UniProtKB/TrEMBL annotation, chain A:
Heteromultimer composed of HisG and HisZ subunits. Transmembrane segments: none annotated. This function is generally fulfilled by the C-terminal part of HisG, which is missing in some bacteria such as this one. This is ATP phosphoribosyltransferase regulatory subunit. Keywords: Amino-acid biosynthesis, Coiled coil, Cytoplasm, Glycosyltransferase, Histidine biosynthesis, Transferase. Its main location: cytoplasm. Pathway: Amino-acid biosynthesis; L-histidine biosynthesis; L-histidine from 5-phospho-alpha-D-ribose 1-diphosphate: step 1/9. The lineage of its organism: Bacteria, Bacillati, Bacillota, Clostridia, Halanaerobiales. Pfam families: tRNA-synt_His. The keyword Transmembrane does not apply. GO terms for molecular function: catalytic activity, acting on a protein; glycosyltransferase activity; histidine-tRNA ligase activity. It comes from Halanaerobium congolense. Belongs to the class-II aminoacyl-tRNA synthetase family. HisZ subfamily. PANTHER family: HISTIDINE--TRNA LIGASE, MITOCHONDRIAL-RELATED (PTHR43707:SF1), HISTIDYL-TRNA SYNTHETASE (PTHR43707). Residues 1-401 form the Aminoacyl-transfer RNA synthetases class-II family profile domain.
UniProtKB/TrEMBL annotation, chain B:
GO terms for cellular component: cytoplasm. The lineage of its organism: Bacteria, Bacillati, Bacillota, Clostridia, Halanaerobiales. Pfam families: HisG. Belongs to the ATP phosphoribosyltransferase family. Short subfamily. Keywords: Amino-acid biosynthesis, ATP-binding, Cytoplasm, Glycosyltransferase, Histidine biosynthesis, Nucleotide-binding, Transferase. One of its GO terms (biological process) is L-histidine biosynthetic process. This is ATP phosphoribosyltransferase.
Length: 421, 213
């Protein structure tokens, strides 16, 4: 029998401990900012996701058929279910709605480098607010979350979903040429663009702009300035003005040093309508977070409203933290208690409980050999003997403690340990 | 910060790449490729160069193990990875072509195409709407039509000499190919300045001054 499934994995204690630390930090930040956590079902109807252009290809979703023959999917994304929630159960609730989540999403083919079929995402959604301040709030919250979990130099690349279309309209690009040009621009493929525009009719200005766009990104203010000087329409410049305002606000918060601007940033998720952004860490080459504005998504449920959100890629974050050893882990000391005489069983349990209450991991087990101690990563062994108690540091000191005053045992043990450390 | 890592396709492309970097003023040891080492730390230039199989260059770059890569367009088309392709280095020039025996008859069943590039071949024929059977081979593709394994091959053709010596002809040129500079999508943003410096220096060597039109 081959019981292994490709693209999914067991999470073992060492990793889980680190995950929990990250989860806790993220949840604290989200909750402190009034984004309350929800858990949506693992199974959703295929209809929820079908027809959302550019979200997840139908063929990349895991499908399940229920007993009524209805096709369900393992949720490939966590934003859609929250949009559904907002438009149904929270239809009449005051706006804006603020939700957060920390769950797994499933995709049969994952374009991310860590090619897992089940990946963990933690994110927030802010529904019912179209203001620039909410865009700002998202960026600042993402920066804060990344810093709190231990990303030393977070970086957020900002783009605008409509910008490329506006620019195409300004340059009078024919409909049939847009797709290929969009692909080439997203790939920053200057050679491809050069070859492609050789055969199509364009004004000299348009050619110039198209050839400049692939290398126009980076310092937000510089890029905005250059775009403003290009022969683009008033409408495009209005979109730029909005971004510029966002950058100015970020500067006030001294966050602009973490921001880059890429006018040709294109998201895989076709539902974004305005601001889009991606979170990175300096020196790490995988995506840590992505987000943006999706003002049309709830329309699907008969309720059109503005929304913005982001999601952190937990597996990539773990990989990054593991490489940079930026884990802030609080490792608890571990005790193992053994006893000689059956009558000491109760004492062993009581002592264990005392130690647990004092913040130590403690287990009672009589037949531990070295292999077991290694595996359980035990730091201290306590051996209850008839006349005294033996305290042993793993691979180190040994001492004997009198056991006539039961109440003082815990105190004596902790004293000794402190002495050793 | 770590040195910028460049993945180069082992073999002729790497040789040319080292030459190009030297022309661009980078202090790479002239005969570094003579050794069997696969990894070179060039501290003076803050570069690390790794030598990998051509088909692996896009993989190293997509995963971000390497920030930049130098690889043939044929490999890029076959691997179809998520990367930035920023510069045509204009060497290793050749083309993708369909070739076979001069007197190919239309087959009754699906056309059989032998190739080292099955993914590109699949996409190419699909875009033409022609159903074909693709046979993936690992070398000596020219042998396929001669032995009757396939009636057509899709391969890179440089001078056409190998085809000619084996009595094969080009049916159709598909597209031009050459070596390209590719960049990891995240590195491009997180290490923009260092990477732009390299792109500009290489661009200068390859295209001279006339490029900044």
């Amino acid at each position: 029998m081959n019981a292994f499934v490709e693209g999914v994995r067991d999470i073992l204690p060492a990793e889980l401990r680190k995950r929990r630390t990250i989860y806790q930090t993220i949840r604290e930040v989200f909750e402190a900012n009034a984004y309350r956590e929800v858990i949506t079902p693992t199974l959703e109807s295929l209809e929820l996701y079908a027809g959302v252009e550019g979200l997840v290809d139908k063929s990349e979703m895991f499908k399940v058929v229920d007993d009524k023959g209805q096709i369900l999917v393992l949720r490939p994304d966590l934003t859609m279910p929250i949009a559904r929630l907002a438009a149904s159960r929270f239809q009449d609730s005051p706006r804006p709605l603020k939700f957060s989540y920390l769950s797994s999403a499933f995709q049969s083919k994952n374009s991310q480098s860590l090619s897992l079929k089940e990946k963990t995402q933690a994110g927030v959604e802010l529904i019912g607010s179209a203001s620039l301040e909410s865009d700002l709030e998202m960026i600042l919250l993402l920066l804060k979350t990344m810093k709190k979990v231990g990303v030393a130099e977070p970086l957020i690349d900002i783009g605008h979903a409509d910008l490329i279309n506006e620019i195409f309209a300004d340059l009078k690009i024919a409909e049939g040429e847009k797709n290929e040009l969009r692909r080439l621009l997203a790939a920053k493929n200057k050679i491809g663009i050069k070859n492609y525009i050789k055969d199509i009719e364009l004004t000299e200005d348009a050619e110039k702009v198209l050839l400049r766009l692939p290398s126009l990104f980076g310092d937000p203010k510089k890029v905005v300035k250059e775009l403003e000087n290009m022969p683009l329409s008033a409408e495009t410049k209005k979109a730029l003005k909005n971004l510029e305002e966002l950058f100015n606000k970020l500067e006030v918060f001294e966050a602009l040093k973490h921001i880059t601007f890429d006018p040709m940033l294109i998201s895989r998720h076709g539902y974004y309508t305005g601001l889009i952004f991606k979170g990175y860490a300096k020196g790490y080459s995988n995506l840590l977070a992505s987000g943006g504005r999706y003002d049309n998504l709830t329309e699907k449920f008969g309720l059109e409203e503005a929304a913005v959100g982001f999601a952190l890629e937990i597996e990539n974050l773990l990989d990054y933290l593991n490489r940079t050893e930026n884990f802030s882990e609080n490792l608890q000391k571990r005790f193992l208690i053994a006893y000689q005489d059956q009558s000491d069983l109760k004492l062993a349990y009581e002592l264990a409980e005392d130690l647990r209450n004092a913040g130590f991991v403690t287990e009672v087990y009589n037949n531990a050999d070295k292999e077991y101690l290694d595996f359980q990563q035990v730091d201290f062994e306590i051996y209850l003997k008839s006349d005294m108690l033996e305290l042993k540091q793993y691979g180190g000191e040994i001492t004997e403690i009198e056991r006539n005053q039961k109440e003082a045992l815990e105190y004596l043990i902790l004293n000794k340990i402190e002495e050793w450390e | 910060m770590d040195n910028l890592c460049i993945a180069m396709a082992k073999g002729r492309l790497a040789k040319e790449a080292v030459k190009l970097f030297r022309q661009a003023g980078y202090d790479l040891p002239e005969n570094m490729l003579k050794s069997r080492k696969l990894i070179f730390e060039i501290e003076s230039e803050k570069l690390e160069i790794i030598l990998v199989k051509p088909a692996d260059v896009p993989i190293y770059v997509e995963y971000g193990t390497a920030d930049l890569g130098i690889v043939g367009k044929d490999t890029l088309l076959e691997e179809n990875r998520n990367l930035y392709e920023v510069l045509d280095l204009k060497y290793g020039v050749c083309e993708f072509a369909l070739a076979g025996l001069p007197d190919r008859k239309d087959t009754l069943l699906e056309r059989k195409v032998a190739t080292k590039y099955p993914d590109f071949t699949r996409r190419y024929f699909r875009s033409r709407g022609e159903p074909v059977e693709i046979i993936k081979l690992n070398g000596s593709i020219e042998l396929a039509p001669l032995t009757g394994l396939a009636d057509t091959i899709l391969d890179i053709v440089e001078t056409g000499r190998t085809l000619k010596e084996n009595g094969l002809v080009v049916y159709e040129s598909i597209r031009d190919l050459s070596a390209r500079l590719v960049v990891n999508k995240v590195s491009m943003k997180t290490r923009q300045q260092e990477i732009e410096t390299i792109i500009e220096a290489l661009d200068q060597v390859v295209n001279g001054d006339d490029e900044n039109a």
